[in-house]
Amino acid sequence: TWLGAKCNSRREIIGINRARLNLTGTVPYEMGLLTKLVSLDLAQNQLKGTLDPLYTLGSAREIFVFDNQLTGTMTRDLENCKALSKFMAGTNQLTGELPPLQMSNLGEYY
Asked: How does pLDDT run across 42-89, given as a tens digit for each residue?
């Protein structure tokens, strides 16, 4: 078992909760390869870099990356996350605005 990971019956990772652990570094590219991931919580750490690895998480319903040190510009690539209903990325150094999303499920974001 991996601390903070939740798997389905097929042993695929569907949830990661690594919030408030003082994590440093960047969001790894490999995170975007977790095609079955439904929930990702990396909030309240010291992560740097961009959100780019997360733009391929098409099954993700919730992504929490608020209160880190993330940088970069919000892009339309977030539209690839079609299942997304909660997206929280506030308190970072992200620029731009949340792109105009065509996701009817998006209920909470900041």
From this structure: 999 999 999 999 999 999 999 999 999 999 998 888 888 989 989 999
pTM: 0.89
Among 39, 45, 41, smallest CA distance to 20 is for 45
Terminus-to-terminus CA distance in the chain, angstroms? 32
Tokens of 105: 């499920």
pLDDT digits (tens, 9 = 90+) for 15-31: 999 999 999 999 999 99
DSSP for 2-67, written as a single string: -TTEEE-TTS-EEEEE-TTS--EEE--GGGGG-TT--EEE--SSEEEE-SGGGGG-TT-SEEE--S
Cα 50 to Cα 47: distance, rounded to the nearest angstrom: 9
- 62: which residues sit within 8 A by CB, 6+ positions away? 38, 39, 40, 41, 84, 85, 86, 87
Report how far residue 40's alpha carbon sits from residue 57's, in angstroms, rounded to the nearest whole number. 10
